Fold this protein.
Amino acid sequence: MSAETWAIAQFTVQMALLATALTLPLAIAAGWVLARHSFPGKALVETVVSLPLVLPPVATGLLLLWLFGRRSPVGQALDALGIEVVFTWKAVVIAMMVVSFPLVARSVRSGIEQVDRRYEDLAATLGATPFRILRTITLPLASRGIVAGAILGFSRALGEFGATIMVAGAIPGRTQTLAVGIYTFVETGREEAAWGLLLLSALLAFGAIYVSNRLVEVRA
Amino acid sequence: MIALTIDVTLRQQAFELHVRESSAVEVLGVFGPSGSGKTSLLEAIAGIRTPDAGEVRVGDRVLFSSASRINLPARERHIGYVPQDALLFPNLDVAGNIDYGVRHSRRALPGMPQLRSTLIEILDLGPLLVRRVQKLSGGEKQRVAIARALMTQPAVLLLDEPLAGVDRARRDRILPYVLRIRRDLHVPLVYVTHDEAELNAIADRVLHLEGGRVVGPAAAP
Amino acid sequence: MTTSSPATKIVNWLAAGLAGLALSAPPVAAQPPGLVVSVAASMHAALEEIAVLYRAATGVTVALNTGSSNTLARQIVEGARASVFLSADELQMDMVEQAGRLVAGTRTRLLTNQLAIVAPSDAPATFSLAALLEGRVTRLAMGETASVPAGVYGRRWLEHEGAWSRLQPKMIPFPTVRAVLSAVEAGRVDAGIVYVTDARDSSARLVATLSTKEHAYLNIVQPAAVIVGPAEAEGRQFLRFLQGPAARAVFARRGFGHSER
């Protein structure tokens, strides 16, 4: 395995770990709100949360490109602050976060829904605030679902391609992930290098699925 | 001893719960067949369920009043609740469960360490402290749940059929614990059961529920 | 706490492995600064060589962003910080120009190209338009004729020859030139239309080249330009290098022509 392949793999894993770490708190919040609360417009929120799952990744990438580009208020604000997103590693992380968020949120929601609400009610009678209940009872009891969601999100981030290539580009050494690398190498005729990346991607995906399955099997 | 005023209307699937009771006793027994609304009543007092109309008062505090639009959340009611199956938190060990109500509590409850050792002594929890809750027997779980509720020094303790899952022989061993709580700690109890013997042993006054309504004269047993 | 089950141990090991993998690289923030050049896939190999030369000559590292010209153009329109854009056809460059993203006066007709017909290696030695129309060729691979430059020009050629309507039923569109070449190499189609420079890196047989002289109307130009942005001066410098003798030699060796104008 060449140094280049190794570097691409490292970069991809780093980005995916960072993306998962950043997505997790947001997804836990969303999963908790959807699992435990009802409010007007909940269906709309559910739809928005699931949107990246349904949209083709390229479409998601286009949306992100517009959002962080010079023609949108967000992009202009970032520009004014001197923060570059498009074509940088930040775009890679953002693309990964957006596509993996629905997976993590759904898994968290499912995990929380399986927690008997009576535990939470009881904790309330003992004087715990809603946040304390979430932290000490709900989330620990939902940990299986949360961890499974995190692994799922991580795997998705590892393999993310369509949105990444749109908003981060395919710049070796800067924004080239495993998936983007495979595409670029094939496109520019470097088929053997592409196979090397493919092998590594497969190994990582295999590892992630294995861990995920073992977690499902483990009995408390 | 504390005055408990309950005037609760709660619409359920099978019936409508109507209870009106005002008493100042140490132990109020709630008696009735299963499905008569006993648990719903306790939940309404504890703040886990919101009645459709009525009032719940403990001493001078109004916990719920549909007329005045008051509905205190459970965590502010200072009502101890021991549900039928104990419902110990599976992710904590016994000590963790017992201490749950007082950890991170913003106001330091006076005499807490003393209370803890008293409860552990009264309820014989010493050998159980580091055990995981899954490994406890039904009776042991109930005792832990009682300690857990009492650690927060509630104004009233609600016990939902605490001896229901326990066999006769053990029951006779656990009932003394409950009596000791009454005798040594003077915490008013609302004690729900469908067993007459327990009622006779413990209650000062009995509320007889059937199909969601109070039937017969509520009387001292 | 109870002791870990075997599964927990495995999970822990895998997690540690991943963490080790992630941490063994230099921090992400330390990314190499350099010139970002967006280059269409067909010119990527040439630019890789040229970038090496440029680094030797100036010490500046060029980071190449590859993709389809359409995607590259779109990124630039939305403000992506590329300094130079090399497009596989004029259409995408027009889009960027209309959006006001080109530095005025820097657009240049950097390269020219020619269409070529490729076929699986066991095909007959010579191929012409007539051969395409024969029954022998039942499947013809081309890039999407609305978006892929080689497809756009391919169609223009066939329309010019009055053969488009007859060939269209045999035509299978592909999203990229690479996909066209793969299909030809694998023998899944009988022939394909690509740029002559694309054909060089492929094991498919080049059976016909549509010379610029005979097909001047095609006028396949691959332009380059400097993009508006903070690295404009560096971009201009690189564009000059692309027009210089060292770069020209690389392009010529790979089959690109250059515009006289």
Observations:
- The two ends of chain C are 79 Å apart (CA to CA).
- The CA atoms of residues 140 and 171 of chain C lie 5 Å apart.
- Chains C and B do not touch (no CB pair under 8 Å).
